[in-house]
Amino acid sequence: MYRSLLVPLDGSNHAVHALKLASRMIDEHADLYVITIPEVPQATDQLGISVGAAPLDYTYESAKELADTIIRESIEKAALGDRKVHAIVRDGPPVAVILNEARERNVDGIVMGSRGLSDLKGLVVGSVSHKISHLAPCPVITVHLPDERA
């Protein structure tokens, strides 16, 4: 039985499925950590797009609100009931942030979805889950959610 697990959340069904699985892998006294790293949206105006800037109305508060929503909705969808969950919100490059949290909290494992919301980008530059599985200081369980159309 694991004493602590870290589950990265991005709002995808794969991440929710990973959270459900992680909650079944530990008892009620173990630490279940969820982490989300809100992605900065791209600007929609021509100048902003050309320099890779965020929208003018993007603020730290809006990023925090988005992260809180992702965590809350993921926990609700995973139907965790009264299970205590430690929520973590960070910013920065997802791979580095997740690995750093795993090291700092000395978790027994990371459970994450095989694909997140940015599937196309992941195919081009390598997915976050793939990089984590090769660099993590602990075991990594990558959860694949079968295609619901099949």
From TrEMBL:
Domain of life: Bacteria
Residues of the UspA domain: 1-144
UniProt protein name: Universal stress protein
InterPro entries listed in its UniProt record: Rossmann-like_a/b/a_fold, Universal_stress_UspA, UspA
Family the UniProt entry places it in: Belongs to the universal stress protein A family.
